TrEMBL record:
SUPFAM superfamilies: ArfGap/RecO-like zinc finger, Nucleic acid-binding proteins. One of its GO terms (biological process) is DNA recombination. The keyword DNA damage applies. Residues 1-77 form the DNA replication/recombination mediator RecO N-terminal domain. One of its GO terms (cellular component) is bacterial nucleoid. Signal peptide: none annotated. This is DNA repair protein RecO. Pfam families: RecO_C (PF02565), RecO_N (PF11967). InterPro entries: ARFGAP/RecO (IPR037278), DNA_rep/recomb_RecO_N (IPR022572), NA-bd_OB-fold (IPR012340), RecO (IPR003717), RecO_C (IPR042242). Keywords: DNA damage, DNA recombination, DNA repair. The lineage of its organism: Bacteria, Bacillati, Bacillota, Bacilli, Bacillales.
Length: 255
């Protein structure tokens, strides 16, 4: 049976001498893997549409096993991403997060739209750090993780100064800091952003400029949280971290 789906390539792996296995996040079917025969050949009609981040209407032969990609109609090549090493790194991590945090063949139009909007914003020069942290927050519920972001995890107070408790899975107020001596100190701006990124609609996102220290706090909380609760190792995340160190070193040398 031939199936037509609106999808985005989130992973593309070589298979044999000339084929590729292409993993798509689709609006209609969720995450699906399809075989693209001959896609490794430069003259193949499947070569260009088997690349990561391609947004297209895909036509494939559906079967009980792996489907067979027949053709695709390109909607957006995300050219801005693929021509920039830094954008490619962030887009790779976002795609890997979607891939590893999503079960196969479970339709989730909201998740598809989240990926599409995120890639478009990275492609269009939006701050990739902000977009990445939004995806990290929004993927938590997809993976069955629900941090307490509305009140203190202990006394339930909504007033006061808040830090983040990795152990207790959420905000902890100044009255309860002693209950987790390893809580992560964060500014109130960071606390507001964690809550905002978790709940709000990405389409409503305007221009946000974050201080370096705020970005650092967001990264610290999210890195520790993912390490504690997901058990997933992201290869592309390591590359982003290495790039961050390299940029910092270059800035220090220039100063």
């Amino acid at each position: 049976m031939l199936v037509k789906c609106e999808g985005i390539v989130i992973r593309s792996n070589d298979y044999g001498e000339s084929n590729k296995i292409v993993t798509l996040l689709t609006r209609e079917l969720g995450k699906v893997a399809v075989m693209a025969r001959g896609a490794k050949k430069s003259n193949s009609r499947l070569s260009s549409i088997s690349q990561p981040f391609i947004y297209a209407n895909f036509l494939f032969q559906k079967s009980s096993g792996m489907g067979m990609l027949q053709q695709a109609e390109m909607i957006d090549s995300m050219r801005g991403i693929r021509e920039d090493l830094f954008k490619t790194a962030y887009a790779s991590y976002i795609s890997e997060l979607m891939d590893k945090g999503t079960e196969e063949k479970k339709p989730n139009p909201y998740q598809f739209e989240l990926l599409l909007q995120c890639l478009k914003k990275v492609n269009d020069e939006y701050d990739p750090d902000i977009i990445t942290h939004i995806v990290e927050m929004k993927m938590l519920s997809v993976m069955g993780l629900y941090p307490e972001l509305n009140q203190c995890v202990h006394c339930k107070s909504k007033e006061g100064t808040f830090h983040f408790s990795i152990r207790d899975n959420g905000f902890i107020c100044h009255r309860c800091f002693h209950k987790d001596s390893y809580n992560v100190p964060i500014s109130q701006a960071t606390a507001r952003l964690l809550r905002l990124f978790y709940y709000f609609d990405l389409e409503r996102l305007g221009e946000i400029s974050l201080k370096p220290e705020t970005k650092k706090e967001l990264k610290t909380v999210l890195d520790l949280y993912y390490e504690e609760y997901t058990g997933i190792f992201f290869k592309s995340k390591r590359f982003i971290d290495q790039m961050g160190e390299m940029k910092k070193l270059l800035n220090d040398n220039n100063n």
